[in-house]
């Protein structure tokens, strides 16, 4: 049932191109527009939405953090992202014009369920993004957009995360389409880019051998740090979470701009620091800033592991290890940038003799608060 792989996690990492393609399937019509029939919240209602609030836990929360960039950019609707476990306890401000998006692979996470119940009590509409047909979260939501990752068995989420991202992009684009904001060239172009992204994920998977070798060489380390900016920041958080869960190592993700506000004090000789570099095209300011960040940490002895787009030559002099990812639009980069981090964590776990599919102390579905 592991299809020739040693672990479910490896199989599920390998299934990501298909999972991404399946989640897009049938949702883009021949004219290049989105048809999300399952989103049973009417177009007039969606036009009334004045705030989007995303609630989720763990890896799904990281998908939500990335969704915020896409939603605000493509729709200009303010978007908040909150850990489901914190949400209802702070008496959040919600009403009938708030659209709450609950993201959950299992559809059974108690924290997320309680957050969505609270939102519905306040009169908000809830859209679930979920991977498990007929589970509790979609049953209790007003609408659901299913991710088509197929069953995810390994405790650490991989393909479900990529499909959650795809679903988030679809919702963001759909909101933009329905509301007419920025609808037109940019959104159409992104829809075309999304249709190609499965191939890009496939290409990343073909180049992972050096990442595995690097991971094995770091098996004796105690700490790995992850840095990113913009959508690369949640990717850094996800890379760190994967490493904690699987390798039981101290791992932290930071927004690279925060370095000088504290974390740079952690940098010491030969400390591995993974840096997710945004595309040099488009938001080039961000790219230049992160190149300076790489220089700063390297000058203090960090061993830099740089994830950068093909053709990005500016990072080369400062990268002790360079991991190339395909050229993608900035907002979609997490779909390709996360994959090496999954492989890295999985290989480190194996090198440290850990149980990859069943990390200690964790359960696949957390049905208690
Ligand atoms: C991380 C992981 C967890 C889950 C979290 C939410 O690899 O698996 O952090 O993402 O427990 O679970 P779902 O998505 O089922 O609500």
From TrEMBL:
Q: Which GO terms describe its molecular function?
A: glutamine-fructose-6-phosphate transaminase (isomerizing) activity
* Ranges for domain SIS: 42-181, 214-359
Q: Which residues form a coiled coil?
A: none
Identify the stretch annotated as signal peptide in this record. none
Q: Keywords in UniProt for this one?
A: Aminotransferase, Cytoplasm, Glutamine amidotransferase, Repeat, Transferase
Catalytic residues of the enzyme: 364 (for fru-6p isomerization activity)
UniProt subcellular location:
Cytoplasm
- Indicate the quaternary assembly: Homodimer.
Q: What does this protein do?
A: Catalyzes the first step in hexosamine metabolism, converting fructose-6P into glucosamine-6P using glutamine as a nitrogen source.
What is the protein name for this chain? Answer: Glutamine--fructose-6-phosphate aminotransferase [isomerizing]
**Gene name tied to this protein:** glmS
Included range, full protein: 247 to 615 of 615
């Amino acid at each position: 049932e592991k299809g020739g792989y040693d672990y479910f996690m490896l199989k599920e990492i390998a299934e990501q191109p298909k999972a991404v393609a399946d989640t897009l399937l049938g949702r883009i019509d021949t004219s290049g527009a989105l048809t999300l029939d399952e989103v049973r919240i009417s177009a007039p209602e969606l036009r009334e939405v004045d705030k989007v609030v995303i609630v989720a836990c763990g890896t799904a929360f990281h998908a939500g953090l990335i969704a915020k960039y896409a939603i605000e950019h493509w729709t200009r609707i303010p978007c908040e992202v909150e850990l489901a476990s914190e949400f209802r306890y702070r008496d959040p401000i919600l009403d009938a014009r708030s659209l709450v998006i609950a993201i959950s692979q299992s559809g059974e996470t108690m924290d997320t369920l309680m957050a969505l119940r609270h939102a519905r009590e306040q009169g908000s509409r809830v859209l679930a993004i979920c991977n498990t047909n007929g589970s509790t979260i979609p049953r209790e939501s007003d609408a659901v957009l299913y991710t088509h990752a197929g069953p995810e068995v390994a405790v650490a989420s991989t393909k479900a995360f990529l499909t959650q991202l795809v679903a988030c992009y679809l919702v963001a684009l759909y909101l933009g389409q329905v509301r007419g904001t920025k609808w037109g060239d940019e959104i159409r172009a992104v829809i075309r880019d999304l249709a190609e992204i499965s191939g890009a994920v496939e290409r990343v998977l073909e180049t992972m051998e050096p990442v595995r070798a690097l991971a094995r060489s770091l098996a004796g380390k105690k700490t790995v740090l992850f840095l990113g900016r913009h959508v690369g920041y949640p990717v850094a958080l996800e890379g760190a979470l994967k490493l904690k869960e699987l390798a039981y190592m101290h791992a932290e993700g930071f927004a690279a701009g925060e370095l000088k506000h504290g974390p740079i004090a952690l940098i010491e000789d030969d400390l591995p620091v993974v840096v997710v570099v945004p595309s040099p095209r488009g938001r080039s300011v961000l790219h230049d800033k992160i190149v300076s960040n790489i220089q700063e940490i390297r000058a203090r002895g960090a061993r830099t592991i740089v994830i950068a787009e093909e053709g990005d030559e500016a990072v080369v002099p400062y990268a002790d290890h360079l991991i190339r990812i395909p050229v993608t639009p900035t907002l979609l980069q997490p779909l390709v940038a996360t994959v090496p981090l999954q492989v890295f964590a999985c290989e480190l776990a194996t090198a440290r003799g850990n149980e990859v599919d069943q990390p200690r102390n964790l359960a696949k579905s957390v049905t208690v608060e």
